[in-house]
Design a protein that fits this description.
The complex is a heterodimer of chains A (111) and B (121). Chain A has 111 residues and is an all-beta fold. Chain A is 0% helix and 45% strand. Chain A contains no helices and nine strands. In chain A, strands 1, 3, 4, 7, 8 and 9 form a six-stranded mixed sheet that branches. A three-stranded antiparallel sheet of chain A has the order 2-6-5, with no helix packed on it. In chain B, a hairpin with a 6-residue loop joins strand 9 and strand 10. The chains are: A mainly beta (111), B mainly beta (121). Chains A and B meet through strand 7 and strand 8 of A and strand 10 of B.
Protein backbone atom coordinates (compact mmCIF):
# COMPACT_ATOMS: atom_id res chain seq x y z
CA UNK A 1 0.00 0.00 0.00
CA UNK A 2 1.47 3.33 -1.11
CA UNK A 3 1.80 6.19 1.34
CA UNK A 4 0.70 8.75 -1.27
CA UNK A 5 -2.71 8.13 -2.81
CA UNK A 6 -3.35 8.52 -6.53
CA UNK A 7 -6.27 7.40 -8.67
CA UNK A 8 -5.27 4.20 -10.50
CA UNK A 9 -6.43 5.50 -13.85
CA UNK A 10 -7.31 8.63 -15.79
CA UNK A 11 -8.27 9.28 -19.37
CA UNK A 12 -8.92 12.01 -21.88
CA UNK A 13 -9.19 12.74 -25.56
CA UNK A 14 -6.58 14.59 -27.60
CA UNK A 15 -6.58 18.30 -26.83
CA UNK A 16 -8.33 17.90 -23.48
CA UNK A 17 -7.03 18.92 -20.08
CA UNK A 18 -6.67 16.22 -17.46
CA UNK A 19 -5.62 16.37 -13.84
CA UNK A 20 -4.15 13.68 -11.60
CA UNK A 21 -4.41 14.05 -7.85
CA UNK A 22 -1.99 12.96 -5.14
CA UNK A 23 -2.95 12.89 -1.48
CA UNK A 24 -0.50 12.62 1.39
CA UNK A 25 -0.06 13.67 4.99
CA UNK A 26 1.33 16.52 7.05
CA UNK A 27 4.68 14.75 7.31
CA UNK A 28 4.98 14.19 3.56
CA UNK A 29 3.28 16.57 1.14
CA UNK A 30 2.27 18.94 3.93
CA UNK A 31 5.86 19.66 4.86
CA UNK A 32 7.93 18.92 1.75
CA UNK A 33 8.11 19.43 -1.98
CA UNK A 34 6.14 17.24 -4.38
CA UNK A 35 7.67 15.69 -7.46
CA UNK A 36 6.06 14.06 -10.48
CA UNK A 37 7.52 11.37 -12.73
CA UNK A 38 6.36 10.10 -16.10
CA UNK A 39 6.99 6.47 -17.01
CA UNK A 40 6.40 5.56 -20.63
CA UNK A 41 5.79 1.85 -21.29
CA UNK A 42 8.93 -0.23 -20.83
CA UNK A 43 11.12 2.70 -19.81
CA UNK A 44 12.55 4.22 -16.65
CA UNK A 45 10.71 7.03 -14.87
CA UNK A 46 11.52 10.54 -16.02
CA UNK A 47 11.34 13.68 -13.89
CA UNK A 48 8.38 15.78 -14.99
CA UNK A 49 7.84 18.32 -12.19
CA UNK A 50 10.12 19.24 -9.28
CA UNK A 51 9.63 21.44 -6.23
CA UNK A 52 5.81 21.34 -6.62
CA UNK A 53 5.55 23.27 -9.88
CA UNK A 54 8.88 23.64 -11.65
CA UNK A 55 9.59 21.99 -15.00
CA UNK A 56 12.99 20.60 -15.97
CA UNK A 57 14.44 21.81 -19.22
CA UNK A 58 12.76 20.07 -22.12
CA UNK A 59 9.44 19.35 -20.41
CA UNK A 60 6.63 21.08 -22.32
CA UNK A 61 4.65 23.79 -20.52
CA UNK A 62 1.55 21.66 -21.12
CA UNK A 63 2.56 19.95 -17.88
CA UNK A 64 2.03 21.85 -14.64
CA UNK A 65 2.04 20.99 -10.95
CA UNK A 66 0.39 22.49 -7.91
CA UNK A 67 0.21 21.80 -4.19
CA UNK A 68 -2.21 22.79 -1.46
CA UNK A 69 -1.92 21.54 2.09
CA UNK A 70 -1.44 17.79 2.04
CA UNK A 71 -2.49 17.30 -1.58
CA UNK A 72 -0.99 17.95 -4.98
CA UNK A 73 -2.08 17.79 -8.59
CA UNK A 74 -0.54 17.30 -11.99
CA UNK A 75 -2.32 18.95 -14.89
CA UNK A 76 -1.77 18.10 -18.53
CA UNK A 77 -3.31 20.43 -21.07
CA UNK A 78 -3.58 19.91 -24.82
CA UNK A 79 -3.44 16.15 -24.29
CA UNK A 80 -1.44 14.25 -26.89
CA UNK A 81 -1.21 10.54 -27.68
CA UNK A 82 2.41 10.46 -26.54
CA UNK A 83 1.30 11.49 -23.04
CA UNK A 84 -0.12 7.99 -22.52
CA UNK A 85 1.99 6.72 -19.62
CA UNK A 86 2.07 6.02 -15.90
CA UNK A 87 2.45 9.06 -13.66
CA UNK A 88 3.85 8.93 -10.12
CA UNK A 89 3.91 11.56 -7.42
CA UNK A 90 6.64 11.51 -4.78
CA UNK A 91 7.62 13.39 -1.65
CA UNK A 92 10.00 13.12 1.27
CA UNK A 93 8.30 12.04 4.49
CA UNK A 94 9.68 13.43 7.73
CA UNK A 95 8.33 10.64 9.93
CA UNK A 96 10.56 7.95 11.42
CA UNK A 97 14.07 8.87 10.28
CA UNK A 98 12.77 10.28 7.03
CA UNK A 99 12.20 8.45 3.79
CA UNK A 100 10.92 8.87 0.25
CA UNK A 101 7.31 7.97 -0.44
CA UNK A 102 5.67 7.45 -3.79
CA UNK A 103 2.11 7.28 -5.01
CA UNK A 104 0.83 4.04 -6.48
CA UNK A 105 0.81 5.55 -9.95
CA UNK A 106 -1.91 6.68 -12.33
CA UNK A 107 -2.21 5.13 -15.75
CA UNK A 108 -3.22 7.82 -18.23
CA UNK A 109 -5.02 6.64 -21.34
CA UNK A 110 -5.47 8.93 -24.33
CA UNK A 111 -8.69 7.86 -25.99
CA UNK B 1 25.36 14.08 -20.54
CA UNK B 2 25.22 12.05 -17.37
CA UNK B 3 24.35 8.39 -17.79
CA UNK B 4 23.77 5.67 -15.21
CA UNK B 5 23.89 1.94 -15.91
CA UNK B 6 22.83 -0.81 -13.54
CA UNK B 7 24.52 -4.20 -13.67
CA UNK B 8 24.40 -7.46 -11.77
CA UNK B 9 22.86 -10.94 -11.71
CA UNK B 10 19.34 -11.18 -13.06
CA UNK B 11 18.52 -14.21 -10.92
CA UNK B 12 19.09 -14.61 -7.19
CA UNK B 13 18.11 -17.53 -4.98
CA UNK B 14 15.88 -17.01 -1.93
CA UNK B 15 17.78 -16.22 1.29
CA UNK B 16 20.84 -15.09 -0.68
CA UNK B 17 22.18 -11.57 -1.17
CA UNK B 18 21.27 -9.43 -4.16
CA UNK B 19 24.20 -7.34 -5.41
CA UNK B 20 23.97 -4.59 -8.01
CA UNK B 21 26.31 -1.88 -9.24
CA UNK B 22 25.49 1.46 -10.83
CA UNK B 23 28.18 2.83 -13.14
CA UNK B 24 28.16 6.57 -13.69
CA UNK B 25 29.48 8.14 -16.88
CA UNK B 26 29.55 11.71 -18.14
CA UNK B 27 30.08 13.11 -14.65
CA UNK B 28 31.90 12.51 -11.39
CA UNK B 29 30.30 10.61 -8.55
CA UNK B 30 32.57 12.64 -6.24
CA UNK B 31 30.81 15.91 -6.99
CA UNK B 32 29.72 17.58 -3.76
CA UNK B 33 26.50 18.66 -5.49
CA UNK B 34 24.91 15.27 -5.92
CA UNK B 35 23.66 12.23 -4.06
CA UNK B 36 23.05 8.79 -5.55
CA UNK B 37 19.98 6.65 -5.00
CA UNK B 38 18.45 3.23 -5.54
CA UNK B 39 14.75 2.73 -6.28
CA UNK B 40 12.92 -0.47 -7.20
CA UNK B 41 9.67 -1.38 -8.93
CA UNK B 42 8.07 -4.82 -8.61
CA UNK B 43 6.52 -6.02 -11.88
CA UNK B 44 3.27 -4.16 -12.54
CA UNK B 45 3.55 -2.17 -9.31
CA UNK B 46 4.72 1.20 -8.04
CA UNK B 47 8.06 2.65 -7.01
CA UNK B 48 9.85 2.10 -3.70
CA UNK B 49 12.90 4.01 -2.49
CA UNK B 50 15.65 1.77 -1.18
CA UNK B 51 18.33 4.22 -0.12
CA UNK B 52 20.75 7.01 -1.01
CA UNK B 53 24.48 7.59 -0.65
CA UNK B 54 26.81 10.60 -0.80
CA UNK B 55 30.31 10.32 -2.24
CA UNK B 56 31.70 10.64 1.30
CA UNK B 57 29.91 7.42 2.24
CA UNK B 58 26.99 8.91 4.18
CA UNK B 59 23.92 6.75 3.69
CA UNK B 60 20.16 7.11 4.09
CA UNK B 61 17.96 4.03 4.02
CA UNK B 62 14.26 3.22 3.80
CA UNK B 63 13.32 2.18 7.35
CA UNK B 64 11.37 -0.79 5.99
CA UNK B 65 14.50 -2.21 4.32
CA UNK B 66 17.24 -0.82 6.52
CA UNK B 67 18.06 -4.08 8.29
CA UNK B 68 18.84 -5.79 4.98
CA UNK B 69 20.36 -3.02 2.86
CA UNK B 70 23.91 -1.82 2.38
CA UNK B 71 24.80 0.89 -0.13
CA UNK B 72 28.44 1.70 -0.79
CA UNK B 73 30.41 3.96 -3.12
CA UNK B 74 33.65 3.46 -5.03
CA UNK B 75 34.84 6.87 -6.17
CA UNK B 76 37.86 5.42 -8.00
CA UNK B 77 35.54 3.40 -10.24
CA UNK B 78 32.87 6.13 -10.39
CA UNK B 79 30.21 3.71 -9.24
CA UNK B 80 28.01 2.85 -6.30
CA UNK B 81 26.55 -0.45 -5.22
CA UNK B 82 23.56 -2.05 -3.55
CA UNK B 83 23.46 -5.18 -1.43
CA UNK B 84 20.14 -6.58 -0.21
CA UNK B 85 20.40 -9.61 2.03
CA UNK B 86 18.01 -12.46 2.80
CA UNK B 87 15.97 -11.91 -0.34
CA UNK B 88 12.55 -13.42 -0.95
CA UNK B 89 10.21 -13.47 -3.92
CA UNK B 90 8.89 -10.11 -2.72
CA UNK B 91 12.23 -8.56 -3.67
CA UNK B 92 11.69 -9.43 -7.34
CA UNK B 93 11.70 -6.07 -9.10
CA UNK B 94 13.31 -3.77 -11.61
CA UNK B 95 16.06 -1.96 -9.75
CA UNK B 96 16.93 1.58 -10.80
CA UNK B 97 19.78 3.83 -9.82
CA UNK B 98 19.44 7.59 -10.08
CA UNK B 99 21.16 10.86 -9.25
CA UNK B 100 19.76 13.26 -6.69
CA UNK B 101 20.50 16.97 -6.85
CA UNK B 102 21.62 18.82 -3.75
CA UNK B 103 20.30 16.55 -1.03
CA UNK B 104 19.05 13.06 -0.25
CA UNK B 105 15.54 14.49 -0.01
CA UNK B 106 15.54 16.16 -3.42
CA UNK B 107 14.51 14.78 -6.76
CA UNK B 108 15.78 11.79 -8.75
CA UNK B 109 17.09 12.76 -12.19
CA UNK B 110 18.31 11.15 -14.35
CA UNK B 111 17.56 7.47 -13.88
CA UNK B 112 19.34 4.42 -15.22
CA UNK B 113 17.45 2.13 -17.57
CA UNK B 114 16.87 -0.37 -14.77
CA UNK B 115 17.69 -4.04 -14.36
CA UNK B 116 15.25 -6.83 -13.57
CA UNK B 117 16.21 -9.05 -10.66
CA UNK B 118 14.17 -12.19 -10.12
CA UNK B 119 14.32 -14.06 -6.84
CA UNK B 120 13.68 -17.73 -7.47
CA UNK B 121 15.21 -21.11 -6.75
Amino acid sequence: QSVLTQPPSASGTPGQRVTISCSGSSSSIGNNYVYWYQQLPGTAPKLLIYRNNERPSGVPDRFSGSKSGTSASLAISGLRSEDEADYYCAAWDDSLSGYWVFGGGTKLTVL
Amino acid sequence: QLQLQESGPGLVKPSETLSLTCSVSGGSISSNTYYWGWIRQPPGKGLEWIGTIYYSGSTYYNPSLKSRVTISVDTSMNQFSLKLSSVTAADTAVYYCARQSGSWYWWFDPWGQGTLVTVSS
